Amino acid sequence: MNYRLSLVLIVFSLLFGCLKEESYVPAYQQKLIVDGRIELGRHAIVSLSLNEKYDGGIDSLELSDMIVRWAKVTVSNGVESEILTGRFNEDYQQKFIYTGSEIVGKENETYTLNIEYSGQSWSATTTIPEASELHDISVEWVNDTLYRIKAYLPPTPNNVPCMVECALNESMYYKPALACIFDSNVSGGYVTINRPINYTEIKSYTTLFNIQDVVRLRFSTMPQFGYDYWSMWENNVINNLNPIFPAQHNPISNISNDAIGAWIGYASVYYDVKKAEPQQ
Amino acid sequence: MATQGGNNGLHVRGGDNGQCKILLGGAPIYSPSHLFGFFSVFNSAHLSGMTLYKSNVPAIYGHAASSVLDIRTHTYIPQKSRFEGNVGIIESDIASHIRINDRTAIYASARHSYASWLLSMINNQERTIKYEFGDFGLGLTTKIDKVGTLMFNAHFNRDITFLDVMMYDSRGTLNWWNMASSLSLSSPISQNVVLDNTLYLSIYDNKFDVSLVNNKLKIGSSVNDFGVRSVVSYKRGDISVYAGMEYNYRNIKPQYVVSSFSSANIHTPFDSSHQFDIFVDSKWKLAQFIHADVGLRISTYCSDKLWLYPEPRIMLSFPITANSRLSVSYNMMTQYIHLAPQSNTSFATDFYVGACRELPPQRSHNFNIGYYQSVLLDRLHWSVEIYYRYLKGCVESMTNIVDMVSGKYKCKDQLFSGRGEAYGIETSIGYHDQKFSITANYTISRSLRQFDNFNQGRVYAAKSDRLHNISLYMSYEPSPRWTLSTTFQYATGAPYTNSMSVYFNNGSFLKEYGPYNGSRLPDLHHLDISVTYWFKSNKFERNGINVSLYNVYMRKNPLLLSWSVFKGGHPTQLYISERHHYLYTIIPSISWTFKF
Fold first, then answer.
1. Can you name the residues that pair with B86 across neighbouring β-strands?
2. Given Cys at both, which of B282, B435, B532, B590 links B241, Cβ 3.0 to 4.6 Å?
């Protein structure tokens, strides 16, 4: 029965249809995931991984199995280049990163990333913008155990976008604070710095920090691509469960050869958040 | 995220939700249903009838790219005042036809829901949903000597949804309302000529207030429609001719965003437009075996650019026997307002935007061939229709709520114009007698879209695309005391954008989305039954208790799919679990129906 009906439809579409739907079944392709940064006054840091096929659920997923450890990663500033060294680093959730030791990020300089892995190559370029600083970082107690962090966001040089990331407690790994990716139009005002999302604790997530939390902030200016990338990244993280405004499109990427991710130059400033005990 | 059902509008023959024009007493309605499509906003007792024009749309109707649903209200003067209504556990409604004198009557209706208990079945620790809806109608008909019949109609409907989601501290309210009113004067000029003048005003407004993290976000839109329509009709024997004009002034606030986060709120400017149409439509018997319905509508539209399009409409009908006919039609239609979808559901967060340079008008070419036959003294009838529609100027959107929060969002930058087509075969068979009635419909169809910005320009399935669509309705009255009825519906699953892979990036798991609308949700089907017992009563014209079960076999039709990452048994092990979210399984209902 189905066959006959399909046949009728095919004949009908041949007769009438102008638009031909291409056989375009979603096909999994293994892709390289790049998370690369070079900061003003610091060396490049790159982490590489691969995507995992998704087909209605994954029974067992080992993050360590997704990590790429045997790539050749090169960074150049147009004059000199260096091959980054792959090493284990417990501060990163991937536990493995590629770091440089020679080329240091400079303001308004352009850096090219080249990656070679498994017979393929990828590349990307970025420029480090001028630095800016957060002002007036303060702690506001909500109750005896929870607090929020506020800061004054000054206009950035040339109105470049900026973002705030947090590292909590012993971890030196900075994750984007929720809703803290700023385009130039929000500069010149006080902002609240929210706790970063932990993907396994979404349901118990709160924007506030706990009394035991030791919080370090990283405030970074970045090129416009950085804002476009991070806003789509955040949209995908928080709206993949939103039925009204769902995320349905992949974040943009500046890595060639169909890789996912970004290579971005930042001018970053680091802060330790000092908190007084809540007033009784 | 993938969604199915939850549809607030009408998709006719592969058309998008906003491509079907809905008129109530001549005034446009922008929000035709409550509770995600579960209830119509119209109280049936307040209406005298409705006609869905999908094959051939007469030239007196415009402003639509796919179809027109013309809903009529009562205009007669009742012999005595009467009341009818339902008192149920989900909603209650009442309608009255009040005779003032032999020249004037008032019609009033009201409905209020208490649907929150229904939604409380799906509430849990993760989310709470509350929902209320209501609608009101008011009509007046008065006959004036030497002038004609004056008719006034007003309709108001509203929905309020409250959502509290234990995720990112988010909660919100979604409210929308629609007001439509019209004033019509029908004046006989001579025995064969009637002049109908209609003045209408329609307002639609939606607001989504959401608290996300520490930020408060208000997203809203509105449409204000004002118009006047004059139609002169001439009828004599087999000939009827309609000619007239319609002027429409429309003021649309496409989508504004007020964010506590950003110093620069997004105030999208109003889209103001003027539309002036003239039309003529005639029906006559061309020969013994050809009936013709030929019309022409010329629409002019002025916003940031001036457009003028002729819209020819033609239908030829060939009676084969006394009870069978073959008809062929071609319609060109133009629509100067777009409904921008925000998701695969048709939530009230979808917003309207006027045609402009970036988003040109939607135009469609519609072809239809149909064969219709009835036998057994009109008790058994069946039909087959084949249709094809080509669409230009369809609209899709690519919304990023993070840009809305940060004040960077520009709604028209997120909207894209493309083309589409829909084709299919509709079959229907029905048998009706005094006790038993059955209607079965089957449609096989496709609805496709092509946009440069989606799927690298490849053709993909529209969100209204359903390969198979089956509906079956039966009712049986074994005695004057009992009425039994059942409905079965089946449709191929809705297209959605699925994840191809997952990846870890910057401390979070993300989906790599596959082709836009490249996958299908599970098929949707449900069986509903209803039993009514009619009491014997001298006081009531009708007095009965109705018991019904919606989705008898508790099919879990997924409204949406989602997935989350969980910690596995081993400290470094994770797993990803997919969840199918459905709005309801079985819905019992009991109501008292009366009429006196």
1. B93, B593
2. B282
pLDDT tens digits, B39-77: 888 888 889 999 999 999 999 999 999 999 999 999 889
Any A CB within 8 A of B174 CB: yes
pLDDT in tens, A104-124: 999 999 999 999 999 999 999
Q: Model confidence at B1, in pLDDT bands (50, 70, 90)?
A: very low
Residue A15 backbone dihedrals phi, psi, to 5 degrees: -75, -40
Burial of B267 (0-12, 13-18, 19+ CB in 10 A): exposed
Decide if pLDDT at B545 tops 80.
yes
- Three-class SS state of A5: helix
B167 with A94: Cβ contact below 8 A = no
Distance from CA of B520 to the nearest CA of A (A): 11
Tokens (6 digits) for B29: 């309605």
For residue A272, what is the enclosing H or E element?
strand A260-272
- The position carrying tokens 């036998």 is B375
| Letter string b/e over residues B77-112, b meaning 16 or more CB atoms within 10 A of that residue's CB | beeeeebbbbebebbbbbbbbeeeeeeebbbbbbbe
pLDDT for A11 beyond 60: no
Q: Is B503 close to A50, i.e. CB distance below 8 A?
A: yes
| A28-63 residue pLDDT tens | 889 999 999 999 999 999 999 999 888 777 777 777
Structure tokens at B44: 């049936």
H/E segment holding residue A66: helix A63-66
ipTM (interface predicted TM)? 0.87
Report CA-CA distances (Å) from B305 to A48, B311, B357, B472: 51, 19, 7, 47
Q: Determine the number of helices (DSSP H) and then strands (DSSP E) in chain A.
A: 3, 18
State both tokens at B318: 């060939």
* Contact call for A63 and B504, based on CB within 8 A: yes
Mean predicted lDDT score pLDDT of chain B:
88
What tokens appear for B340 in the block?
Answer: 């921008």
Is B3 a residue whose pLDDT tops 50? no
Each domain of chain B, given as residue ranges in start order, spans: 2-595
Q: How far is A95 from chain B (nearest CA, A)?
A: 11
Whether the CB-CB separation of B181 and B148 falls below 8 Å is answered with no
User: Is the per-residue pLDDT at B525 higher than 60?
Assistant: yes
Residues of B in contact with A29 (CB under 8 A): 500-501
Of B9-23, B141-155, B258-272, where does mean pLDDT reach its minimum?
B258-272
For the domain made up of B2-595, the CATH class stated in words is mainly beta
Element (H, E) at A236: helix A224-239
Helix then strand count (H, E) for chain B reads 2, 38
pLDDT band for A1, please (50, 70, 90 cuts): very low
The residue that leads in pLDDT, A69 or B413, is A69
Single out the residue of B233, B242, B316 nearest to residue B281, CA to CA.
B242
Q: Distance (Å, rounded) from C-alpha A93 to C-alpha A116? A: 23
Partners of residue B264 in chain A, C-beta under 8 Å: 185-186
CB-based contact, B387 to chain A, within 8 Å: no
C-alpha to C-alpha distance for A63 and A48, rounded to whole angstroms:
12
By Cβ distance, the residue of A54, A234, A241 closest to B402 is: A234
Find the helix or strand (DSSP H, E) in which B358 lies. Answer: none
Cβ distance of B576 and A197 shorter than 8 Å = no
Dihedral angle of Cα B49, B55, B61, B64, to the nearest 10 degrees: 110
Encoded tokens for B556? 């879990």
Query: Are B344 and B36 within 8 A, CB to CB?
Result: no
Largest Cα–Cα distance in chain B? Answer: 89
- Substitution target in B510, B521, B580, B582 with the highest count of A β-carbons within 10 Å is B510
Q: Are the Cβ atoms of A200 and B420 closer than 8 angstroms?
A: no
